[in-house]
Amino acid sequence: MKKTSFTLVFLLISYFSFAQFAGMMRGQQAEALPEGFKPSSTNTFLALYPAVNAQTRQALFKVVAPTANNVQLDLCNKKYDMTKDDRGVWTCMSDPQVVGFHYYAILIDGVAVMDRNTKAFFGSNWMSSGIEIPEGPEGDYYRFDKNIPHGQVRSIYYWSEINGMERHVNVYVPAEYEQKTDKSYPVLYLVHGWGEDENGWSNQGRMANIMDGLIASGKAVPMIVVMPSGDIQTNPDVRRASGDISQIFVQDLLPFIDRNFRTKTDKQNRAMAGLSRGGFQTCQTVSTNLDKFGWMGTFSGFFIRGDNSLETAFNGLFKDPSEFKRQIKLLYISTGTEENTPKAQVEALKAKGIDNIVYSESQGTAHEWLSWRRALNEFAQLIFK
User: Fold this and answer.
1) Quick one: how far is CA 138 from the chain centroid?
2) Contact 241, 235 (CB under 8 A)
3) Cis peptide upstream of residue 236 (ω within 30 degrees of 0)
4) How far apart are CA 20 and CA 12, in angstroms?
5) Using omega within 30 degrees of 0 as the cis cutoff, is the peptide bond preceding 255 cis?
6) Which residue, of 25, 215, 337, 357, is most buried by count of CB atoms within 10 Å of its CB?
């Protein structure tokens, strides 16, 4: 076949694919949503579904899959059977959901795929669909406020000698950073959990909105927030969670941040926190670098594993209460009430005399982003003061 024929075939395929998609979107726009339902805030441009009812906290899903034999929705550990109409459109309504952000997938004949109607979020080690079940005014702290100054989240690459390759990091600077050029700032290192990446805190976590609001209201001091990857890449195509990430944080990342940003470099102006596995990595990193960090936080991530006890865990961090309090200004531990809580371990630490602990529970949430948004909102108000 001649080159012109290939081009014609490609153009025809592209045209019909676009026409099919455009027709589907026109159909969505012409359709009226059921009363009380609005498109999810995580939807792609023009997509009506999934649609969310803020009062009932239910979500309505529609998927175009005319040749599929079976389609299901996989949302919050439950699979829903979807029903098919004569146009090949599959529909289902969810049960009432906990407010906040949730990953979900569509199962088409048993194969998990993204819903093309939503933006992509990296979670559970793959690009997932996401839906936001809206809170009321109590969720305003993580929403964009047009009436306050906003900082920047900068996407940066730095070289890691330990990893032997470039690594990506997101860095938040407060709104005043470009104006007050003679001012230096404390730094919070904020780590994601297993199966997510360094973009999670910005995308799913709404970190910038949270920090902008706290700083504008005077509830938190202006600070830089560094969001690194908690995984070690052996090459550009393989991700893994093994190895000593603490060495990369301390030997490669910290010096890079201090060279390229106006930072306060003493330990009392450097904090570290993380969610889930990132909380465990925080404990590992801080306990072996007490000369570099003065504040630490774990969000659903305070783990004492295996044969370790309070005496031996994290390089003996808690063995001597007076030494711990001398080295660490604050240990913040949070959890959702619907997940396994570390409350017994917190009480044991306090019984040992380690009383510079703030323990917080997120009511009604599990191992999910609303628990961690709430935790960041609290933790950021406590540090560097």
Assistant:
1) 19
2) no
3) no
4) 12
5) no
6) 215
27-134: CATH topology? Immunoglobulin-like (2.60.40)
Give the model confidence (pLDDT) of 101-156 as tens digits.
Answer: 999 999 999 999 999 999 999 998 899 999 999 999 999 999 999 999 999 999 99
Instruction: Give pLDDT, residue 164.
Output: 84
Q: Note the pLDDT tens digit of each residue in 269-325.
A: 999 999 999 999 999 999 999 999 999 999 999 887 766 688 888 999 999 999 999
| Cβ neighbour number for residue 327 with a 10 Å cutoff | 16
* Alpha-carbon gap, residue 270 to 254, rounded angstroms: 10
Which CA distances in Å does 28 have to 51, 58, 91, 115? 11, 19, 13, 15
Domain-wise residue ranges, the chain: 27-134, 140-382
pLDDT at 216 over 90: yes
Q: φ and ψ at 280, to 5 degrees? A: -65, -45
Place of tokens 């202006």: 222
Burial class (CB in 10 A: 0-12, 13-18, 19+), 338: middle
**Closest to 142 (Cα-Cα) out of 370, 380, 382:** 370
Q: At what angle do helices 207-217 and 369-382 cross, to 10 degrees?
A: 30
Specify the pLDDT at position 100.
96
Residue pointed to by tokens 């910290």: 254
Tens of pLDDT, residue by residue over 224-252, are: 999 999 998 766 555 554 447 999 999 99
CA distance 115 to 73: 10
Rounded Cα distance between 266 and 288, Å, is: 16
Mean model confidence pLDDT for the chain: 90
pLDDT value at residue 235: 60
Using an 8 Å Cβ cutoff, are 290 and 329 in contact?
A: no
Contact 109, 70 (CB under 8 A): yes
